Amino acid sequence: MSKGHMTDSDLPWSFPVMVVQLPETGLHQVLEASAAQRELIAAAAGVNAVLRATASFDVRPEPEGHVSVTGRVKARVEQTCVVSLEPVENDIDEDIAAVFAPPSQIPAKMAQKEEGDDAEIPDPPEPIIHGAIDLGQLAMEFLVLGIDPYPRKPGVTFVPPETPEDPDEHPFAALKALKEKQGVPQGKKPKGK
Predict the structure, then answer these.
(1) Any idea where the domains of the chain sit in the sequence?
(2) If you compute the radius of gyration of the chain from its CA atoms, what whole number of angstroms results?
(3) What is the DSSP letter of 122?
(4) Residue 78, burial from CB neighbour count under 10 angstroms (0-12, 13-18, 19+)
(5) Of the candidates 95, 27, 20, which has an alpha carbon nearest to the alpha carbon of residue 58?
């Protein structure tokens, strides 16, 4: 299965919300990943295990068919320490913020972005697919962003392997050789009369 062609059933954490069913006042939604979903999230995120994953969202309809989503995803993941290779648990706590729009509106927004000046222009909206916004997928995207790519156990420091130093290989040896070539005496102070 290639990553480029994910169907809804391939998504580890999926919770579609139909835009037409959103109340005008917005929707507050809390998700908790099941054990089976956490296993799939761990595999997709490249971690040993996802011990828990929860997300809370506020989904609000905006003008022009847009929908704003704000919220937070919290998770605890088990990874392998890059130094000791022992398991280490890390907490993830990421704020979520995204704007969704009907796909027909997004190309026009992109064109405006290209013609505009270099001012800070927000990212284009995410597309609303088949009239729905997948909160589970959104939570997972932010969860993956929060994962430390180089996890370390607390108190573990990286110690480079001991290698006997060859004085000729020392980084300053080349500099010293260069100075000697230019006739600069090493370590000798000119004698005062």
Answers:
(1) 8-145
(2) 27
(3) P
(4) middle
(5) 27
Taken as a whole, the chain contains a residue count of 193
- How many Cα atoms within 13 Å fall on the side-chain side of residue 42? 21
Task: Summarize pLDDT for 126-170 with one digit per residue, the tens.
Answer: 999 999 999 999 999 999 999 999 999 888 776 766 655 565 566
Rounded CA separation 48/81 (Å):
11
- Look at residues 17, 95, 29, 94 and name the one whose alpha carbon lies nearest to residue 56: 29
DSSP notation for 56-120: EEEEEE-GGG-EEEEEEEEEEEEEE-TTT--EEEEEEEEEEEEEEE-GGGHHHHHHHHHHS-SS-
pTM > 0.85: yes or no: no
CA distance 29 to 35: 19
Closest CA to 69 of 151, 146, 142: 142
Angle at which helices 135-145 and 35-45 pack, to 10 degrees?
50
Q: 29-69, pLDDT tens digit by residue? A: 999 999 999 999 999 999 999 999 999 999 999 999 999 99
